[in-house]
Amino acid sequence: MVANLAQCKIVIQKAVAAGAKALFLPEASDYISGSPAESLSLCQPVTSSPFVLGLQSEARKHRLPIHVGLHEPSDNPTSKKIKNTLVWIDENGVITNRYQKLHLFDLDLSDHGGNKMKESDSIEAGNEMSKPFDTALGKVGSLICFDLRFPEVALALKRQKADIITYPSAFTPPTGLAHWHVLLRSRAIETQTYVLASAQCGAHNEKRTSYGHSIIIDPWGKVLAELGGAEDKKEKGDAWEPEIITAEVDFELLKKIRAEMPLLRRTDVYPEV
């Protein structure tokens, strides 16, 4: 976690230099472990986690809100599972919003020579949505990674007036190559919101590699900015360091798209999400 905090500080410096009003970091920015047991041993409450305390200090120092994915202990002291959460640290360094991942990534391609990964072996699924919350960038709705495959929850955030929906992620390269861009653009188009997806990139350990391709998409589905992927990180080797992308949230564009193409749901025919 110390090394990850150091990487995050590099990103923070770049965000400050770019004049960013907020920083959005990936899912599991504190660590990605090689086993459930290791993950459980690393997990700490936010009140004592050096990683979280370090980010809170940076947020206060730079007056920069930080949206970050991390792990937190279960509320059940006897549980062998932990939480995959997303917190908003405001410009005063205070955690003012929290979301616990609803949909867990369970993948079994072993019959086809592929990977087997079961997030549910070590992670507790959340039981409620976090309502969009006010920021200098508009109302932010928080979702995480595998939540991307469930449009219902994004549509629910749209109904609650979200301007931005986030998908901080650690996508696998095979699923990222197949589905990352098409799913993210679809969520932006159907919700008429900005979509921000900050993504882990490259190899974490012998078992895990992440796809990368952090991306910002506007409410028309246009890709405004995108970073490279695991292949780019591998090519750069020791010369690689964390990067940022930036974009402006255009409230007039949000208003224009929603006015010119109103998505009026037929809730007299099907249930409202």
From TrEMBL:
InterPro entries: C-N_Hydrolase, C-N_Hydrolase_sf, Nit1/2_C-N_Hydrolase
Keywords noted in UniProt: Hydrolase
Pfam family name, one: CN_hydrolase
Domain of life the protein comes from: Eukaryota
Domain CN hydrolase: 1-251
PANTHER family: DEAMINATED GLUTATHIONE AMIDASE, NITRILASE-RELATED
Protein's UniProt name: CN hydrolase domain-containing protein
Origin organism lineage: Eukaryota, Fungi, Dikarya, Ascomycota, Pezizomycotina
